[in-house]
Design goal:
two-stranded antiparallel sheet, Rossmann fold, Serine Threonine Protein Phosphatase 5, Tetratricopeptide repeat, mainly alpha, binds flavin-adenine dinucleotide, Crypto/Photolyase_FAD-like_sf, about 5% strand, DNA Cyclobutane Dipyrimidine Photolyase, subunit A, domain 3, UV-DNA_repair_photolyase, binds ligand DLZ, 7 strands, five-stranded parallel β-sheet, about 525 residues, binds iron/sulfur cluster, Cryptochrome/photolyase family protein, 20 helices
Length: about 525
């Protein structure tokens, strides 16, 4: 009985659930590079290159593992351009009795998979993606009946479920969470770890030429492509991180430095999200560093929390909220995202750094995404849907299930507080505390008004006042609203005029494209 097993671009794991119990003799695997997937947003050039190269290498690994696999390249003259079109061609080629597939990573693709049974008149088995720790059904049960969703409680359940960092059922060191120890600013140092650079092989070089030819106008550059594209290389980066960066990961988790793109972060999200690395194995390896006394608890707990806590929680939220989650716009924000998000051409140094490195590498770390680019978009009232589209385009690790809740929920507060108890809005003071950006900036982070004032400052107060009807009752914002109320009328008017001037200049500047 021939079984057709499609493997999508973020399912690059040898032990994928769709392959469980499949028989190598009669299974036909299918991997497809399709135009639809490359164009639903204008992906960063490096993102498409990474996915295609990792897919092509994974196809080789599957064949070496004894599977029979059809691989359809983007430039195949018969390529239909869509997943469903390629399934149709594969059904015609192999006349399978059934299709088995692991569930998709976004609503758009999930709808395609669900339509196949009717379109092809074949049984289609859609299997749970067991690379995640919590199944979707488990998350649905977890949120049932809860008035307030908080990641922390979900995270503790995931610690109990996996046994990670537990001593006799109690959290290692006595606390579940060591986040309060993880807020140190960093100093530039020659000893700082740098992620490994992998030299492109023949497969990657071919892919880079294809992307250069097909997507010349997409954001970003293909220059210096040095990401891992195989499991072996991704494991090498994992090992490097555990040894050289994990020990300081906690201390400097929120730090930002000019010219330092990676600090003590792992740069493993692209590999975890596409399937080259297994998140639970990675967490167990991180725990082993703590148990062996090579990495401190605040670092290891912080790292594990990002993966079994935040990552899993984001996925649960995405699927629990339905396909309409993307429409939410609690703050009714409608300003277009400024054009400099696609060029980095701004004199605000923090934004120039975060966007510049994003366009170069298709990566920025969490605090750059949240407190620089995300914060600025929030303060100016950018349309959350456009902000979402930007994040989905420009990051190598961006798949909708993880990108959307991070952007729309955590960063833009567009879901009204489902994901965070208050908006991540801040003035320049936060950026100044956590980085050296302000020292290199033409603006003065201490000034609120005047030609040299840091734009974040007036925009922060303006954001609070503009959204007073929606935010003033939030107890976590009581303090800033009190501070605003204590300012005299002239100061308030000056601040609002300063913000209005900045917003007007953004509106007058060139937009997307
Ligand atoms: P590290 O700092 O080394 O963290 C370790 C791992 O923890 C990451 O590899 C990742 O798998 C996980 N992790 C950490 N934070 C989060 C989080 N908030 N949500 C989910 N997983 C997390 N992450 C993505 O994987 N894809 C996205 O598209 C994405 N979009 C984001 C958009 C915004 C607006 C924000 C604020 C955050 C976004 N994140 C996204 C989360 C986070 O920024 C990245 O996971 C992280 O920067 C990846 O770099 P790293 O591997 O060096 O992470
Ligand atoms: C993001 C992406 C891109 C650019 N191209 C492909 C592709 O050609 N083939 C493929 O299988 N997947 C691709 N992907 C990933 C998908 O768009 C999508 O995110 C996942 O299928 C969701 O599970
Ligand atoms: Fe950014 Fe303001 Fe600091 Fe300049 S002064 S780097 S604009 S926060």
């Amino acid at each position: 009985m021939t079984t057709l097993i499609p493997i999508l671009g973020d399912q690059l794991s040898l032990d994928l659930s769709a392959l469980d119990d499949a028989d190598r003799a009669d299974a036909r695997l299918l991997m497809m590079e399709v135009a639809d997937e490359t164009t639903y947003v204008r992906h960063h050039k490096k993102k498409i290159a990474y996915i295609f190269s990792a897919m092509r290498h994974h196809a080789e690994a599957l064949r070496a593992d004894g599977w029979t696999l059809d691989y359809v390249t983007l430039d195949d003259p018969d390529n239909s351009g869509s997943f469903t079109g390629e399934i149709a061609r594969a059904v015609a080629r192999h006349a399978p009795e059934r299709i088995v597939v692991t569930e998709a990573g976004e609503w758009r693709v999930a709808a395609m998979l669900e339509a196949w049974e009717t379109i092809f008149g074949l049984p289609v088995e859609i299997r749970a993606d067991d690379r995640f720790i919590a199944s979707l059904a488990e998350f649905a049960t977890w949120i049932e009946g809860r008035k307030q969703l908080r990641m922390e409680y979900f995270y503790r359940d995931m610690r109990r479920k996996t046994g990670l960092l537990l001593d006799d059922g109690k959290p290692a060191g006595g606390e579940w969470n060591y986040d309060s120890e993880n807020r140190k600013p960093a100093q530039a140092s020659l000893l700082m770890p740098r992620p490994l650079a992998f030299v492109p092989d023949g497969i990657t070089t071919d892919v880079l030429s294809l992307i250069a030819e097909r997507f010349p106008d997409n954001p970003g550059t293909l220059d210096r492509f040095d990401y891992a594209v195989t499991r072996t290389d991704a494991l090498e980066q994992q090992g490097y991180f555990l040894k050289h960066a994990l020990p300081c990961f906690g201390d400097y988790q929120d730090a930002m430095l000019t010219g330092e793109r990676f600090l003590w972060h792992s740069i493993l999200s692209p590999y975890i999200n596409s399937g080259l690395l297994d998140p639970l194995d990675l967490c167990r390896a991180a725990e082993a560093e703590y148990r062996a006394g090579r990495a401190p608890l605040n670092s290891v707990e912080g790292f594990i929390r990002q993966i079994i806590g935040w990552r899993e929680y984001m996925r649960g939220i995405y699927w629990s909220q339905g396909p309409d989650y993307v429409e939410r716009n609690f703050l009714e924000a409608h300003r277009p995202l400024p054009g400099f998000y696609w060029t980095g051409d701004t004199d605000m140094h923090c934004l120039k750094e975060a966007i510049g490195q994003t366009l170069e590498t298709a990566h920025a770390h969490h605090i750059q995404r949240l407190m620089v680019t995300g914060n600025f978009a929030l303060l100016i009232g950018a349309d959350p849907r456009q902000v979402h589209q930007w994040y989905l385009e420009v990051y190598l690790d961006a798949y909708e299930w993880v990108e959307l809740p991070n952007t729309l929920g955590m960063s833009q507060f567009a879901d009204g507080g489902l994901l965070g108890s208050k908006p991540y809005a801040s003035s320049g003071a936060y950026i100044n505390r956590m980085s050296d950006y302000c020292r290199h900036c033409r603006y003065d982070v201490k000034q609120r008004t005047g030609p040299d004032a840091c734009p974040f400052n007036a925009l922060y107060w303006d954001f609070l006042v503009r959204n007073e009807d929606k935010l003033a009752r939030n107890p976590r914002l009581a303090m800033p609203y009190r501070t605003w109320a204590k300012m005299d009328a002239t100061t308030q008017a000056d601040i609002r005029a300063q913000a209005a001037q900045t917003l007007a200049s953004l509106d007058a500047a060139p937009g997307y494209g």
